Amino acid sequence: MAFLSLSKVLDGAPNVKKDGASYTIGEDSDVSLFVTLGREAMQIVRISKIELGAEAVVVSTHKSERFYFPPDLIVGLQVGGSEKRANKGGGAGFR
């Protein structure tokens, strides 16, 4: 995924703050990144920060994990709504 498209998606995502070449994602947002590893893809969930560099993209998660990838291996970004909103309510609607 090209830097331009990745940054465009992150610029328009809710609960994402840009600081130079890095993006900080709020804890109540659901953001996942997909990375290609040959014929397989790896999904990194609960991302807290993405740093875009010329030689590497650094991905940090809310579990204090850090991943380093070449930019050309990133193939997708999933931006979901707030986990708090998604888990609110529930049930069949009966009272």
Characterise the protein shown here:
Strand 6 (57-61) and strand 7 form a beta hairpin. The protein has helices spanning 3-12, 83-87; strands at residues 16-19, 22-25, 29-37, 40-44, 47-52, 57-61, 66-69, 74-82. The longest helix has 10 residues, at 3-12. The protein starts with a helix and ends in an 8-residue tail after the last helix. 16% of the residues lie in helices and 48% in strands. The strands form 2 sheets. It has a 5-stranded antiparallel β-sheet with strand order 1-2-5-6-7, covered by helices on one side. A 3-stranded antiparallel β-sheet has the order 4-3-8. It is of the alpha+beta class. The chain has one domain (3-81): SH3 type barrels (Roll).
Brief characterization of the structure:
The protein has 95 residues and is of the alpha+beta class. It has helices at residues 3-12, 83-87, and strands spanning 16-19, 22-25, 29-37, 40-44, 47-52, 57-61, 66-69, 74-82. The chain has a single domain (3-81), classed as SH3 type barrels.
